[in-house]
User: Which sequence fits this backbone?
């Protein structure tokens, strides 16, 4: 830390020095007459400062981004190589262990059975058979497999302990053990191992454990870290000095420094706008990549994911459980999302639209001065607040009303309470978008209608509304897209049961709720359960993308018509 | 000619109808706006009402005797020795001194359940910072447990105080309790007896229904876990029915237990808990929870203290209620402003939980978001508005930005998880990553508003600058940008306010963890685990403790205040600096 801080400070000083040298040299080149220069003297300073600072800072930034992981990879790779004999011994022992092999075969068999059960279940779902039976069988099989996996893991651990015990208590022995432990650890344990080692080596926070192996790993990390840190600082300073020397030679009276500096500025601006594209690409590729891994883990039965009626991602406890665990039929989630969106739009569309019409056509300036900020506040309330409101105020209220009306099974977390509150959240969105659209309808249309003797409401209904319809449809589509992607209200107020129901008083679950449920809490990254969240995210992204593109197109067309 | 009046009549009639339609339409519009405003009022009103209990807290003020043999086991007053001291024992001794009647282990546990042992850490720090207090008695203030606090606020327990109707006689019972008899023969406990019996009947009916319902549900349920839990619940309901049936009788003495209301009797300066009532309502049996100040075999003046909520339905026991109220009467429990809520970080104990940690996390996250989103957003806006050639790439970027503005926020969280955490190996739960994710999310808002602000600057400004020989870059940076700055700032602040209230993407990158230590407000704080205000609200709202409900509402009000002040600044900037051309 100290050395990089020193390097950054030195670079800053060098950059400032570069600026001063550039300026002075330019003035000197013009014999003290600044007006002979092509650009203002400051631009020569900027030019030199850019050459001094930019390459060096880019290098330091790269080091900051990738330095630590490079050091980890190199140091632990070294340890793993030293652990090679242990690893060979471990694998040989496992291969010789008949019980372990028997367990492995049993796992394969159970997975084959689970596969056929899933196929049967899906067929039964399609043809109206007894899907529940297979779902139950699948649950039993998964439980069996988990048991066997635990047994295998225990066996492996025993072998590993006995193998590791053979390494001598010398420095190379401990290093080999450290490499062995790291090699055997699943990815999330590896991260922990590395962070503990780094904590010991560089005082980065507190280590969760402090064993001989971790101390060895910490010792292995240090020389690499030192090497990289000092070489990064050295190379950065060399780059700065070299850039300074090179750019200094180029300064003449006729040198177009401003063009160069402005070129760099233009490039930087272009790169900032490229970040928008990079974000989209990042979203698309990360979702696609993880979804592909998910589909691979369920044997590419994408139709089963999209059209299956049962959603019960089993809780995967260990990394060995890759394969078919649980049922990933997402239809209940799609249905829940649709139900809640429908309820929300039934609330938001009429209220938002009528509010917009009233505000733009009827309201007195005084009313508008009150109502508009109120709607804006409604729009600015964080969704988690709406979720709290739905959970603690609206949900219990609706439940009591339903109980009073004789519906005994009413629950607090229902589709209705989430949908209602989401509708309230969307009202300002609908009203402000429709307000824009209605205001964009030319006054001449209204005046023509009034001239024919139409009342205000007739003008609105028969002239303004049809003229604004495409824009309003676009606004409503954007609102739907928002309702589909809304997370916190449904997480808090809609419940988690994957019920396939059209009854708004039952609790349903949505795509976003399941993404949150699957990705919060402890999880390892390779189980299909975790990966399925990304597949759901992909579906969500595609759905909203289509809605957005249609809506934006429609709105744009509409605007063009009256501009 | 003859039908002219009828046409006019028809028109008149139609006109009236049309005007009615007009009025109806206007009414619908007004109703829509009123509905929206009403929702807002209900939302804010319910939040304020819910948050009220959180702003005050009952605190226990104890005189703690810092006995050296307990606080300083090695006897050298060194810091190492002081840190090994048992400070909870000191607090316990001090509290026990108030109620020496509490003898058994379970009674002690109930007594010490009035506060959380975590408070001992604060006492430790006090003593370590000032070792002179060894051997002295110091006044130590600590928040009492959330359950006792809610009880004293009258929120969880219904109770009633009734004056005693007629003098009582007290006699020791064989098993160590006290037998109470109405000396005049008046049925002094009659009213309470009826209450207990009515309660029992209602509870019995409800438990029977519950048992039937859950059993039926369990039979239909497919999911094994849910079925098991339903079956367990049905079993609990059946057990309850059995217990209630045993308690309900018209002749045998009524036993008061955890299913029934509790009855306390105050006499002779002490408090008796009634455990058994005769059906005639004239005599009862009980035992002292707080011993009498003078022993006597009769009580002329006494009062009944009916705790109507059965102890199974509350999280505070009869003894704790009596102790808490007595402490309050002795002036050892005081009600005051709940400063803990704003000075502490999160805690498992509601009485010790505060929003300070989340606030620090929010500040750090917002700093990252601001440093990334504003320069990048403004840069992109300048490029697209002033420099970009009109071509398909630029169009594509524009469509992209408009679309990104409408992508659900949770998708940005997935991006952050997959790219920043899993690909780049950045730390989970860190404000740095949270700020980066929120920056990507706010970027479209900033770009769109900055472009609008740049577009609003009239072209004459640019042309004049170019006309006197400025380059395009100079024209933009020296003339257009300063004029567009108020609009850009307003848009940026609104975007940041949006990011400040965002929850879902932060759940994805692990900022939902329980964090008891606030992150340091410095450079290293950016990579320490942290949480932010909206996530804290989410965490609290899913906590089981009732006391968190009010604290959640209070945290929401704090967050809303922040957001409103952000927006007020934006509106002020717009009003103050915006120029209309």
Assistant:
């Amino acid at each position: 830390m100290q050395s990089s801080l020193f390097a950054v400070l030195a670079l800053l000083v060098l950059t400032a020095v570069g600026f001063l040298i550039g300026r002075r040299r330019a003035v000197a080149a013009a014999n003290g007459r600044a007006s002979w220069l092509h650009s203002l003297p400051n631009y020569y300073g900027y030019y030199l400062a850019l050459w001094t600072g930019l390459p060096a800072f880019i290098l330091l930034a790269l080091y900051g981004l990738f330095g630590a992981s490079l050091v980890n990879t190199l140091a632990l790779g070294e340890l793993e190589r030293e652990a090679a004999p242990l690893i060979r011994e471990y694998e040989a022992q496992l291969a010789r262990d008949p019980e372990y092999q028997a367990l492995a075969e049993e796992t394969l068999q159970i997975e084959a059975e689970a596969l056929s059960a899933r196929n049967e279940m899906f067929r039964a779902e399609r043809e109206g058979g007894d899907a529940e039976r297979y779902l139950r069988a699948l649950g039993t099989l998964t439980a069996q497999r988990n048991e066997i996996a635990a047994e295998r893991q225990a066996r492996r651990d025993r072998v590993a302990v006995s193998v590791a015990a053979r390494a001598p208590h010398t420095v190379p022995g401990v290093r080999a053990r450290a490499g062995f432990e790291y090699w055997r650890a699943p990815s999330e344990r590896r991260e922990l191992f590395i962070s503990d080692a780094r904590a010991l080596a560089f005082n980065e926070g507190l280590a969760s454990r402090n064993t001989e192996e971790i101390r060895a790993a910490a010792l292995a990390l240090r020389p690499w870290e030192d090497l990289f840190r000092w070489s990064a600082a050295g190379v950065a300073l060399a780059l700065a000095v070299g850039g300074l020397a090179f750019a200094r030679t180029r300064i003449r009276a006729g040198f177009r420094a401003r063009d160069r500096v402005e070129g760099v500025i233009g490039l930087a601006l272009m790169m900032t706008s490229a970040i928008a594209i990079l974000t989209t690409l990042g979203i698309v590729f990360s979702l696609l990549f993880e979804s592909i891994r998910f589909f691979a883990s369920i044997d590419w039965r994408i139709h089963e994911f999209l059209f299956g009626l049962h959603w019960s991602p089993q809780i995967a406890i260990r990394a060995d459980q890759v394969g078919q665990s649980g049922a990933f039929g997402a239809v209940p989630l799609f249905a829940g999302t649709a139900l809640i969106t429908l309820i929300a739009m039934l609330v938001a569309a009429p209220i938002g639209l009528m509010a917009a019409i009233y505000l733009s056509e009827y309201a007195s300036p005084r009313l508008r001065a009150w109502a508009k900020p109120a709607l804006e506040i409604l729009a600015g309330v964080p969704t988690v607040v709406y979720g709290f409101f739905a959970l603690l105020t609206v949900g219990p209220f609706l439940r009591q009303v339903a109980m009073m009306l004789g519906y005994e099974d009413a629950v607090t977390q229902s589709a209705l309470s989430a949908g209602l509150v989401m509708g309230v959240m969307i009202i300002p969105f609908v009203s402000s978008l429709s307000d824009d659209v209605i205001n964009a309808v030319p006054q001449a249309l209204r005046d023509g209608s009034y001239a024919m003797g139409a009342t205000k409401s007739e003008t609105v209904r028969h002239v303004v509304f049809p003229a604004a319809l495409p824009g309003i449809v676009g606004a409503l589509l954007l609102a739907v897209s928002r309702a589909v992607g809304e997370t916190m209200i449904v997480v808090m107020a809609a419940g988690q049961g994957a019920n396939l129901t059209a009854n708004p008083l039952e609790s349903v679950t949505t795509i976003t709720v399941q993404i949150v449920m699957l990705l919060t809490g402890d999880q390892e990254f390779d189980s299909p359960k975790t990966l399925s969240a990304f597949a759901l995210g992909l579906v969500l992204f595609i759905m909203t993308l289509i809605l957005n593109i249609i809506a934006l197109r429609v709105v744009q067309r509409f605007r063009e018509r009256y501009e | 000619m003859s039908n002219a009046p009828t046409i006019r009549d028809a028109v008149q009639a139609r006109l009236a109808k049309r005007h009615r339609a007009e009025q109806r339409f206007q009414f619908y519009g007004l109703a829509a706006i009123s509905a929206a405003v009403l929702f807002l009022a209900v939302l804010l009103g319910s939040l304020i009402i819910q948050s009220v209990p959180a702003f005050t807290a009952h605190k226990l003020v104890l005189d703690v005797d810092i006995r050296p043999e307990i606080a300083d086991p090695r006897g050298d007053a060194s810091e190492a020795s002081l840190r090994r001291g048992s400070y909870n024992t000191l607090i316990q001794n001090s509290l026990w001194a108030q109620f020496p009647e509490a003898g058994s282990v379970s009674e002690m546990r109930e007594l010490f359940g009035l506060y959380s042992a975590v408070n001992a850490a604060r006492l430790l720090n006090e003593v370590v910072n000032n070792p002179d207090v060894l051997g002295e008695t110091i006044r130590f203030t600590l928040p009492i447990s959330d359950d006792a606090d809610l009880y004293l606020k009258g929120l969880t327990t219904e109770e009633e105080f009734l004056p005693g109707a007629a003098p009582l006689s007290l006699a020791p019972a064989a098993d160590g309790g006290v037998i109470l008899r109405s000396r005049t023969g008046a049925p002094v406990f009659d009213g309470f007896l009826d209450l207990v019996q009515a309660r029992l009947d209602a509870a019995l009916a409800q438990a029977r229904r519950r048992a039937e319902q859950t059993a039926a549900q369990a039979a239909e349920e497919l999911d094994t876990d849910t079925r098991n839990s339903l079956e367990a619940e049905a079993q609990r309901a059946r057990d309850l029915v059995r217990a209630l049936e045993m308690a309900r009788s018209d002749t045998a003495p009524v036993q008061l237990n955890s299913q029934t209301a509790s009855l306390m009797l105050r006499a002779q300066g002490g408090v008796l808990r009634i455990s058994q009532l005769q059906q005639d309502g004239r005599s009862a049996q009980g035992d002292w929870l707080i011993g009498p100040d003078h022993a006597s075999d009769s009580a002329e003046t006494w009062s009944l203290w009916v705790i109507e909520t059965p102890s199974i339905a509350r999280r505070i026991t009869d003894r704790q209620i009596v102790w808490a109220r007595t402490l309050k009467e002795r002036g050892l429990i005081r009600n005051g402003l709940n400063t803990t809520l704003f000075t502490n970080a999160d805690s498992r104990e509601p009485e010790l939980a505060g929003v300070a940690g989340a606030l620090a996390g929010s500040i750090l996250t917002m700093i990252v978001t601001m440093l990334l989103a504003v320069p990048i957003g403004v840069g992109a806006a300048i490029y697209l508005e002033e420099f970009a050639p009109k071509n398909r790439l630029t169009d594509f970027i524009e469509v992209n930005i408009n679309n990104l503005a409408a992508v659900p926020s949770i998708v940005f969280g997935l991006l952050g998880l997959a790219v920043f955490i899993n690909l780049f190996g950045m730390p989970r739960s860190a404000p740095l990553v949270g700020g980066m994710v929120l920056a990507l999310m706010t970027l479209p808002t900033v770009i769109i508003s900055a472009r609008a602000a740049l577009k609003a600057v009239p072209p004459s400004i640019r042309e004049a600058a170019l006309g006197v020989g400025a380059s395009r870059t100079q024209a933009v940076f020296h003339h257009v940008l300063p004029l567009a700055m108020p609009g850009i700032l307003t848009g940026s602040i609104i975007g940041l306010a949006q990011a400040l209230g965002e929850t879902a993407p932060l759940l994805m990158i692990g900022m939902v963890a329980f964090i008891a230590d606030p992150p340091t407000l410095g450079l290293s704080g950016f990579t320490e685990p942290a949480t932010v205000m909206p996530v804290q609200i989410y965490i609290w709202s899913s906590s089981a403790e009732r006391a968190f409900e009010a604290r959640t509402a209070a945290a929401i009000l704090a967050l809303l205040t922040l957001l409103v002040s952000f927006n007020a600044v934006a509106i002020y900037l717009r009003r103050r600096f915006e120029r209309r051309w």
Notes: The two ends of chain A are 58 Å apart (CA to CA). Chain A touches chain B through 101 residues (CB under 8 Å).
